[in-house]
Structure formats: C-alpha cells, structure tokens
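It would be a great kindness if you could assist me with a short task in structural biology. I am sending you one protein, given as its amino acid sequence and as whole-number tokens for its backbone shapes. I would ask you to consider whether the tokens describe a fold that such a sequence might reasonably adopt. The full record is reproduced below for your convenience.
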Amino acid sequence: MSRKMDRRGFLKALPFIPSAAIEEIKKPDESEEKDVIRPPYISENSDFSKCAGCEGNCITSCEEKILFRLKDGSPKLVFGEKGCTFCRKCAESCEFEVLSVENPERVYVNVKINFSKCMAWNGVMCFSCKEPCIYNAIKFEGLFKPQILPDLCTGCGFCVNICPSGAIEVFPVERESGLDEKTA
C-alpha cells in the first residue's frame, strides 16, 4: 500500500533527512553525544563501546527504520515519521547484549509539551497527540490542556511527528543521573 506524503509531511521530514544521512558518516562530538537518544532495551550498564565491533544488526532489523548508526558504531534513535513499536527485533539481534529484551520496553527520554506552540493550550481543539498514544500517557484537563503522564509514557515517539505545530519535544535522559523508571 503506497502512502502519499502531503506538503506538511514533506516539510516536516526535511530536517530529518540530512541529519540521518550525516549521522552515518560523522563521529559525534561531546555535545552531540549528550543529545543522542538511545533505543529501548538498555540499562544503566549498557556499554555502547561494544558496538564498535558489531555489524549494526539492530539498525538493519528495525522495522520502523528509526535507528541510525553513529561513526562509533552505536545506535541512535531518530523520531521521524514513525515511532518505536517495541517489537524487540533490535534487542534480539544485538550480538553483544548492549540491548537486551531483559531490559524495559522504554526509550529513556523526557517528553514535554511546549505550551506556547501547542494548539490545544492556545484554545484550538486538537487531540492529535492523544490519538496515537496506546498507553494513554497524554491526559487532557478539559478540552484544552494536554499533559504528558511520565509514569505511563514509554517514550515511543508516535506523538512527536503527528503534532501539527511541533509542540512535543523530546530530550534524552542524562546517563549520569541514572535511568529512572519513572522518567519517560
């Protein structure tokens, strides 16, 4: 089944196309490493330096094609048109057990709504972010004030691209602070 991309979808995809292509050929500097969103199935003991010796099976096995390989061999998750379905294929294909199905089905990110960009927070009836959230992690106070519930959010990213105003922002959790189960 072929799906046509409308103008909005095309314009929203443009920023991701060059960055995904560039990530494949350049080594991240320290500031970029802080902004790397890692795939699910990691723990605080996951050693991404082991990825240098692998063939990138986690990237090729990703059905949603949201994993990209950095120059050091480690995987980076990029929310483009899709999000993570937690299919486990990346973890099952990881030969060095950097990713493991024993670890939680969670992408360790902080997901926030930028209220100044959010159409619902500015009086326009919009439920775009709530509809794809199968975990009901987005709660509306009345009709106009969406809130992300960190205890329910898995960080899958399906709400990110669907937002027509780009109000949902995703930030990686700092590894120094640990992987907190309640942070999503």
Q: What stands out?
A: The first helix runs from residue 7 to 13. The chain has six helices and six strands. The longest strand covers residues 109-113.
